[in-house]
Amino acid sequence: MAIVFVSFFAIASIAIFANHTASSERLLSRANIYQSICKRDPVRYAKYCQKAEEFKQKATAARIKENQNPASSISISPTGPCRPIGDVNRDGILDDQDAVAILNHRAGINIIPSNDLDRQTRADVDKDGQITSSDASLIRQYLSGQITTFPQCPAENSSTPTPLPSISSRGPCPPMGDVTGGENRLDDTDAQAIVDHVANIKLLSGFDRIVRADVNGDGKITSIDAALIRQYLAGQITTFTGCKVALPAPDTDSDKDGFNNAIELAIGTDQFDACPDNLSDAAWPPDFKNDKSVDLSDILAVANKQGTSEKRYDLNADGNVDTKDIDIIKSYYGKTCSN
Questions:
Q1: How far apart are CA 188 and CA 38, in angstroms?
Q2: Is 126 exposed, middle or buried (0-12, 13-18, 19+ CB in 10 A)?
Q3: How far from the centroid of its chain's Cα atoms is residue 225's Cα?
Q4: pLDDT tens, 292-319?
Q5: What whole-number distance in Å separates Cα of residue 145 and Cα of residue 163?
Q6: Which of 300, 271, 301, 296 is CA-nearest to residue 283?
Q7: For the segment 81-122, what is each residue's pLDDT rounded down to a tens digit?
Q8: Where is this region: Disordered (predicted)?
Q9: Which tens digits make up the pLDDT trace of 263-291?
């Protein structure tokens, strides 16, 4: 009985729309009909779930096309109502891919890291402190012309509008953050350089640039540093916590362990601790077991990474793991450390 009802419902809905122009409103209505069928049993009626998604996308495309017509009563911006809110994939455009990114996050696919504060903020369009399907729904409602703003956007008619912060093209405290160097400017390429370093895609090299990457001054290079640069560029913050920390000279060796601060910052060891306190404390660069000694297993650890760009094994922080790094680890063979 249910199958007969659903089939009749689907055929009737198609007949209703068959003789009408495919406006965004009608496409969205059709998507809603398919969605109502889908909700009855998503497994049995999977094809209707697919149809619902298909017509939502068609409605979005139709709305964008309609907004190019001066007669349209609702105008939407390709960057969203209050850039960068909603632009989850950071491509500079608000589109259905951003909604899909949120849904994938909720489904456990391509999760937005909790320490990526920039993307977390962009995805929380309803400003409830969580990333949910409601955020994706709001993006699609905006794209289809059903709403004109997001809850996270500043009120247009606020009696006390928040002034946009003034940001410098060089950053809040040059050269902090200017990781790529050369152009004497802070931009997204600096943030991306940090992301690539953390992901072992392309390691930072050059002691000055390495030290500049620690914009929050916590003694580590992490995705949080990249997020802070992007927040500054978006006008969400006006300074870096690292601005209050004096940049050390690149060749400073605070813990006197034979590796300067810039190298330890780049490879991820503790620049202020000369020897491990426990087996999980990466403090002495040549000691990969964190057992306060260097033996054959440490040498092999570096040798096995030769030809890669894994930062922990790049003992001279030149951007590559090669014979130079093997020579360095060999020079420490049989040695121990102490605090």
A1: 42
A2: middle
A3: 11
A4: 999 999 999 999 999 988 889 999 888 8
A5: 28
A6: 271
A7: 888 899 898 887 888 889 999 988 888 888 888 878 888 889
A8: 151-171
A9: 888 888 988 889 999 998 899 999 999 99
Return the percentage of the chain with pLDDT > 90, whole number. Answer: 19
Q: 42-74: per-residue pLDDT in tens?
A: 778 778 878 878 877 777 676 666 554 444 445
Q: Average pLDDT over the chain, rounded to whole?
A: 80
Cβ atoms 151, 127 nearer than 8 A: yes
76 contacts 142 by C-beta, under 8 angstroms: yes
Interatomic CA distance for residues 297 and 303, integer angstroms: 10
Residue 296 contacts by C-beta under 8 Å, 6 or more apart in sequence? 333
Q: Concatenate the DSSP letters of all residues of 214-270 into one string.
A: -TT-SSS--HHHHHHHHHHHTTS-S--GGGGSPPPPTT--TT-SSS-HHHHHHHT--
Q: Residue 293, SS3?
A: strand
- Please give the pLDDT value at position 67: 53
Q: Would you say 282 and 269 are in contact if contact means Cβ atoms under 8 Å apart?
A: yes
Radius of gyration (C-alpha) of the chain in whole angstroms = 27
- DSSP 8-state secondary structure symbol assigned to residue 312: G
Pick from 150, 55, 143, 46: which is nearest to 95 by CA? 143
Predicted TM-score of the model (pTM): 0.46
State both tokens at 60: 């979005």
Distance CA 177, CA 186 (A): 7
The residue type of 219 is G
- Whether 306 contacts 316, CB under 8 Å: no
Q: Alpha-carbon distance 88 to 79, whole Å?
A: 11
Which tokens belong to 166?
Answer: 């003034």
Answer whether residue 202 shows pLDDT above 80.
yes
Q: Which pair of structure tokens corresponds to residue 25?
A: 């409103």
CA distances from residue 6 to 11, 28, 31, 216, 266 in whole angstroms, order as listed: 9, 19, 15, 57, 61
As a residue count, the chain comes to 339
